[in-house]
Amino acid sequence: MIQPLTIVGVGGSMASTSSSLAALTIALEGAAEAGADTRLLDIRRLNLPIYDPELRHVPEAARQFCETVYAADGLIWSSPMYHGGISGAFNNTLARLHLPPI
After folding, report:
1. Could you tell me if residue 41 is inside a domain?
2. Which of 39, 41, 36 minimizes the C-alpha distance to 10?
3. What are the pLDDT digits (tens) for 30-54?
4. Angle CA(57)–CA(62)–CA(67) in degrees, nearest 5?
5. Fewer CB within 10 Å, N or C, the chain?
6. Inside any domain, residue 31
């Protein structure tokens, strides 16, 4: 039996009502309808501290985030555009994907 793909969606808005998060939810629903296991990671709920590249201790929330993303077969990222780029909060979240050596 073939195992379903795991698709993780990372929503990059801090707004309580977010069109980018709504779009991500629709995309994940489509992936689920196609047979994938899906997981939504909403940055409002991740509670990640500001990324500090010199910090040697990785906060547990950051470790769990990275483990979830690394284990995925595919990712869907969704962020609002602010001043021509992704949100600062989403950029901070993506910076977390670099774990320091342990």
Report:
1. yes
2. 41
3. 999 999 999 999 999 998 999 888 8
4. 110
5. N
6. yes
